[in-house]
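Case study B.
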Amino acid sequence: MAKTTVTLKDIAQRLGLTIATVSKALKDYPDISPLTKANVRKLADEMHYSPNALALKLRKRKTFVLGVIIPEIVHHFFSNVISGIIDMAEERGYNVLLTQSDESMEREIKEAKLLLSQRVDGLLISLANNTDTVDHLKEFQEMGVPIVMFDKVNGSMGTSLVQVDNRNGAFLAVKHLIESGRRRIAHIRGPIVPQTANERHKGYCDAIEEAGLKTNLEYIRVCKDVTQQEGEEFTRQLLLLPEPPDAIFCITDLVAIGAMKAIKDAGYRIPEDIALVGFSDWNIAAVVSPALTSVYQPGYEMGQQATRILVNEIEAKEAKLPVQRQSIVLKTELKIRASS
Amino acid sequence: MAKTTVTLKDIAQRLGLTIATVSKALKDYPDISPLTKANVRKLADEMHYSPNALALKLRKRKTFVLGVIIPEIVHHFFSNVISGIIDMAEERGYNVLLTQSDESMEREIKEAKLLLSQRVDGLLISLANNTDTVDHLKEFQEMGVPIVMFDKVNGSMGTSLVQVDNRNGAFLAVKHLIESGRRRIAHIRGPIVPQTANERHKGYCDAIEEAGLKTNLEYIRVCKDVTQQEGEEFTRQLLLLPEPPDAIFCITDLVAIGAMKAIKDAGYRIPEDIALVGFSDWNIAAVVSPALTSVYQPGYEMGQQATRILVNEIEAKEAKLPVQRQSIVLKTELKIRASS
DNA sequence: CTGTTAGCGCCTTCAG
DNA sequence: CTGAAGGCGCTAACAG
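Model:
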């Protein structure tokens, strides 16, 4: 029935009390008589009183809102991260304002400005691929708003970081290929930025070196957009080499799917002739045939951890405790399937 | 350098002006001298002044925030919807507070309460599967907060609705099977709620009837959780029938993938022996082999449209214009691939 | 035990 | 052209 929203004032007037008294009664202050407390509570219930979060936020200079900037929502890995963020935020009593940069630094800057003006209590961000400076985030630090970066990070601001062990994941993948007898292992890698692509490339090199295999630069192909089409095209090129590879490690499952198509089209068998390994363990990996071996990265957990750290920093700051910056690295896991 | 946030007051003091004057100067009121305007603006820039959104929201009793409740974020279709919501919200100048119900009515109720207390300007919701009443949303209406439901909706509140044409999509899928010569068409359907599953089932029946085929109840299987496992298990059962089907229409691509496995395991060929069609056109549909025929539903567009309608209702209400409830149905599209 | 006062940061009549 | 006053809804000293 309450057409308009009911405030403390309304309750106070009806009861012939003062706003302050009503406020205290509802917050169970010790210096209010049990009787008035009861009266106030009863009427508050009847009138469906609900405190105005806005007023509280203004008063307390705290919004209980976390800002999130993510490159792409429609992405199996990132949607897992978001889910982890939202669940943990809820657990800690925060809400989540979600934005996407669409892998564009320009839009990332815009969203950052917006979130800052919304007075979020903290920021969770995974950088866009072409983000090459973090100046747009400096203002958060100046305003004392904690930042936690995840997945695609930049350590130069001294913020807490949450990443997965890309290098080790790639290392395990390639080592597995070597142990199953492969010697001519190609790598279809991601672009020079972001960092994640470099780390996976390093892991690949680590494994190759450790095994004493010679590194063949012809076997390295660099994706620009990390698409299925690129996977297909680069694989086609690889198969035309005088010594075609007997295994391919791809930066991403999607790229691996492209590779899979090219390999089949060329009449080779997987894994007999050419083994294939992807990265990320998307929902697609287990359902293609042959099922794709892939490096699983714990997206949900990444979201949870990043949020946990961020809220801890926010609350430490409020309690004037020293904030401990953290940099955590989550374990990746090789899921071996039929393709290798 | 600005350690603490800068307010109108700070600017006013430095310039020996009053808060009111500064406020007006920044908002380009006609009754402020060009000189002071210039001075104020200059200093505001230098001090990196940014209006406190909280204060504005309190003052204007408007948050520019849309609340979103979605069953599952980690879901290819829904993540597309979210992306559409966020992009359109940004275009119209709103932010998005995202929550997930995890397909639980209990959590849905909780999130609704939370969003209401956050004073969102409007609500976008897709109901959880087991949500059988909408009492928890009544309060939004009482408070005059517009609601738009999408995908899994309930028309009983008289809110605007955005859906896809599930019935016609299913109809087209089954008609396509019939036209390619299939006569014994099975349907692995979803549970009795939500409505979407029923509509797809109806579309199936429509096509069967139109073709004058006899309906065989043995050919209908009802999923409980709509999983790949269920698809596999039900298909196995179907293949054991005296007259096994020569085509299967599945409620979801994931279920179809399960069916695909069972069919292959039983030694049948797709599509020669048994044709297969899914629904949703997930990212997985195009990459499995044989590639899966599926009914595409425009998730991104659904998010955009729902948001557009919601913002229109919000702004119509503010302008005291009559609000036009809308119910729109987006077209689905059959993507024919190798499996049929 | 209850009320008064003084803001949080901003906007908007209404005076001067 | 500028300032004073009141208020959005709530909290937190400090009085009484």
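Chain B touches chain A through 51 residues (CB under 8 Å). The remaining cases will be described in the next quarterly update.
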